[in-house]
Amino acid sequence: MRILVTGATGYIGGRLLKVLEAGGHQVRCLARKPEYLKSKVALSTEVVEGDVANKDSLQKAVAVIDVEYYLVH
Question: By CB count within 10 A, which of 13, 18, 22, 30 is most buried?
Fold first, then answer.
């Protein structure tokens, strides 16, 4: 299952990310500053640059995704 997590740099998102990675899921994270997040995720986790307020970056992030966790306040 391919899963998108928005808000992975936050408290809840960061913990959810670790659970999903440990479960063997294919995880993609959307981040405004991917360089901040890349060092904190598993090698198998994809980090893409974007912003939930930007339609184009959001459309790219959700491509070929089965489930999305939207954890942006």
Answer: 30
Residue boundaries of the structural domains of the chain: 2-70
DSSP string, 1-50: -EEEEESTTSHHHHHHHHHHHHTT-EEEEEESSHHHHHTTS-TT-EEEE-
Backbone CA torsion sign across 16, 36, 27, 50 = positive
Q: 55-72, pLDDT tens digit by residue? A: 999 999 999 999 999 999
Q: Could you report the per-residue pLDDT of 7-44, keeping only the tens digit for each?
A: 999 999 999 999 999 999 999 999 999 999 999 999 99
Look up the CATH number of domain 2-70: 3.40.50.720
Contact 21, 45 (CB under 8 A): yes
